[in-house]
C-alpha cells in the first residue's frame, strides 16, 4: 500500500530521492514469515520507516542531497537504522533534504524540491523536509530525520506532524553524516506522539561507536505516553517571554499557539512566565558554531576518499574541482563562514566568544527549568512559505529563531500540531521543551496537550 501511494503521488511531492522497492518487498516478506511463525522481532515488525538521506543504511545510497556524495553506497548501517531493523522496522527509501542538512526549506537539495503535501505550492520546511512530507503524505508510517538547529521540529510544524529532537547523546550519531557534531541528533517524525515514543524506544541508548553517546539507560517512552495523565494538574508550564515578543509571530501562528496555551491552562497546568535572556544571541551563536564545525566536518569530502571526483591537473586542482562542482552554494557559503571564524586572528573574536555565549544560553535553560517542568513556545514565526519566497539566506537563518537554542543547550524538544492558520489553511506547530534526559516527561506532556 505504501509503495503504491508513493508511485501514485510522489511525482508531485518528490519526498524520495530513492526507493528500492525490491529491497522493501524482500524485507516485508521476511517480516511476514516471522509473524507467521509466531516470532516477530517486536510488535512493530514489518512497519516501514522512511530514512533521511544523511543517515546511512547498508547497501543504500547516501547522498545528503549533494552531488559530491551522489555515487556513494553505504557499506554499513547507522546505529539508528540497525536498531530499527533489530525491531523489525523496514527502512523505506531515502528522503530528500537540504544539502548536508543546511537549510530550512529543502530548496537547497541538489536534486529536487520537495512539496508540502498540505499545499504543493509551499515548502515542506527543512532540512528534514523529505521526511516530514513522507509522513504527512502517508508514504510511510514514520520517518527518521536529523535536527542540528530545528530540522526535525520545523518541517514537522510546516507539514502538520510530530517531530522530536532527543537530548544530545540520546541517539547514536554513528552513521549520521556529520554537519555540526556538537548539535546533531537523529529523531523520529511521526503522525502522533505515541509513534514518536515507540521509535525513540527503538533507536535511543548507549552506543560505544559514538563517543558522545550518553551512558544512561533509555526506554519506557511509549509506556510513559500510554500512561500520560488526562490533565496537567500539578504541572508547571513555562512561557519564555522572549519567544512571545511583539511582532515576532504571524497572526495565524500566534493565534494557534495562544490557543494551545489556553488548552494547557484549561487542562489544569500552572502557567509561569520565565526568561531566557540570551535568546537574542542564539541565531548568531548557532551560525558561528554550526558553520565552524561544518567546515571541519566537510573537509573530508575531497574527491579522493568519497564520492564524486573531478580530475584536475594535479592533486590540489582535483580538490578544487571536486569540491567546486560537488558542493552547492549554501554549503560553500557555510564552509567559507566556518573557515573564517576559525582562522587565526578571528578565532577568539568569533568562535571562542560564541562558545562562551553558548554556555550562557545553556544556563538560561537550567535557570528556567528551576521554575517549571516544561517550556511551551512557538516552533516557527510563520506557516510554511511558498517556494522562492525566502531567497535571502539571512532571512532564512532568522526564521530558525525558536528552534536553535535547544540544540545549543543540548536539551530535548518536540513539535506537535496545534491547529491551522485561517488565512492559508496551513498547519501550525507548538513546541514543548524539557531538560536533558527528560524525554519521558516531554512526551507525556505532549500527549496530554494533543
Ligand atoms: N535551518 C538550520 C540550518 O540551516 C537548521 C538545520 C538543521 O537542523 N539541520 O542550519
UniProtKB/TrEMBL annotation:
Top-level taxon of the source organism: Bacteria
One cellular component (GO) term of this entry: glutamyl-tRNA(Gln) amidotransferase complex
Keyword Ligase: yes
Catalytic residues in the record: 52 (charge relay system), 127 (charge relay system), 151 (acyl-ester intermediate)
UniProt entry keywords in alphabetical sequence: ATP-binding, Ligase, Nucleotide-binding, Protein biosynthesis, Transferase
GO MF annotation list: ATP binding; glutaminyl-tRNA synthase (glutamine-hydrolyzing) activity; transferase activity
Protein name, UniProt field: Glutamyl-tRNA(Gln) amidotransferase subunit A
